Amino acid sequence: MIEVSELTKRYGSKTAVDHLSFTVRPGLVTGFLGPNGAGKSTTLRMILGLDAPTTGTATVSGVPFHRHPRGLRHVGALLDAGQVHGGRSAAAHLSALARGNGIPRRRVDEVLQEVGLAEVASRRIGGFSLGMKQRLGIAGALLGDPPVLMFDEPINGMDPEGVLWVRRLFRRLAAEGRTVFLSSHLMSEMENTADQLVVIGRGRLIAAESVRDFAARGTRRSVVVGTAQAIELAAVLTAAGASVEPEGSAGAERLSVSGLPADRIGALAFENGIRLDELTTRTASLEAAFMELTADSTEYLAGQPR
Ligand SMILES: Nc1ncnc2c1ncn2[C@@H]1O[C@H](COP(=O)(O)OP(=O)(O)OP(=O)(O)O)[C@@H](O)[C@H]1O
Question: Could you tell me which residue ranges the ABC transporter domain spans (predicted)?
Answer without folding.
Answer: 2-227
